[in-house]
Amino acid sequence: MASKFHLASGGILDFNSTAVTLTHLSDDGGIILNGSKKLYFDDSSNKDQYIGSNGSGHTLIAAPASGGEIDLTAAAIDLNGTVDCSSTLDVNGATTLTGLLSAGAATLSSTLGVSGITTLSGTHSDVSSDTKIVVIDPVSVTTANSSNVSLVSSLYVDEPNITLGTASVLGTATSLYVNGAPTEGIVNYAAYIKGDTIISGGSMTVTGWGIIFLWTNISYIWDC
């Protein structure tokens, strides 16, 4: 028969005169580690992999600051609450955000890299005021003294990196594609630019029938 260590309900396992204790919670059958003590893993030399309490309501899961990794492997991982990422966030694969997506002022101090297909979908009901699905709020940009900055942009779209396979044919390639305009408004647009000067660095082609409204002057820049 295998040996076992038995403590009665509510029993306490005491290490070093209550410096560290494991207490059985008789009301729910759990075990609690006292105070801000930690449960360590791997070895006792570095003490850089552990789970513990970092204060009331703050659970701490730690891995080595240099080269460490916390690996969560499951068919689905459910995070309920605000996610605060203070370093590089890499998302590899398809990313689907469902529901109302909103964000206030953002401070970007690192890199956000998304590799794969990103889909935004959801439903916003009972709309009674102006509704903006995806908003890029003004981000404060301060240039360095005596610097020469060629471009500042709230949204920058680069060309897709396309490699054509053998004997393949690509009909249309574009960096930005608007599939269609809404039809429910009094006036409907596929794209609406409420701003000042619009500059096209290349040729511009307009196909189909429609009306172009011009509320400002047009300047032509000829590159001969």
Commentary on this structure:
This protein is mainly beta. Among the domains are: 7-36, no CATH class; 39-68, no CATH class. Helix content is 0%, strand content 17%. The protein has no helices and ten strands. The chain has strands at 12-15, 20-24, 31-33, 38-40, 50-53, 59-62, 89-92, 95-98, 112-115, 118-121. The strands form four sheets. It has a three-stranded antiparallel sheet, with no helix packed on it. It has a three-stranded antiparallel sheet with strand order 4-5-6, with no helix packed on it. A two-stranded parallel ribbon has the order 7-9. Strand 5 (50-53) and strand 6 form a beta hairpin. It is elongated and about 85 Å long. The model is unreliable at 103-108 (pLDDT under 50).
**Number of helical regions:** 0
Let me know the largest β-sheet: 3 strands, antiparallel
- Please trace the helix and strand order, writing H or E for each element: EEEEEEEEEE
**Terminal CA distance:** 94 Å
The SS-based structural class is: mainly beta
Tertiary shape: elongated
Give the mean pLDDT. 80
Please give the share of residues in helix. under 10%
Strand content: 15-25%
Q: Reading side by side through the largest sheet, how are the strands ordered?
A: 1-2-3
Query: Which spans of ≥5 residues are poorly predicted at pLDDT below 50?
Result: 103-108
Radius of gyration over C-alpha positions, nearest whole angstrom? 29 Å
Number of strands: 10
